[in-house]
Write a structure and sequence with these properties.
- By secondary structure, this protein is an all-alpha fold.
- 83% of the residues lie in helices and 0% in strands.
- The longest helix is centred in the middle third of the chain and has 58 residues.
- It is rod-shaped, with a radius of gyration of 30 Å.
């Protein structure tokens, strides 16, 4: 009977540990997903800004390098 109670207590302790572990894994997964979304958002923003700058550079008239010294 003592052995059975010890086993039940161990089982309950293991259950609580597993629940805490699952909660931590879920928290970490949510953090990872959030960081990836933020990284992707910043990457796309940077790519759009680069594209806009390239468009602006392409739209400006080209000057020869020596014309800056005149």
């Amino acid at each position: 009977n003592v052995l059975m109670e010890t086993f039940k207590a161990f089982q309950e302790q293991q259950h609580h540990f597993n629940q805490a572990l699952l909660q931590e894994i879920r928290r970490q997964q949510a953090y990872i997903e959030h960081r990836l979304e933020e990284r992707d958002r910043l990457l796309l923003q940077s790519m759009r800004e680069t594209l806009e700058i390239r468009k602006e550079i392409a739209a400006t008239p080209k000057k020869k390098w020596w014309s800056f010294y005149k």
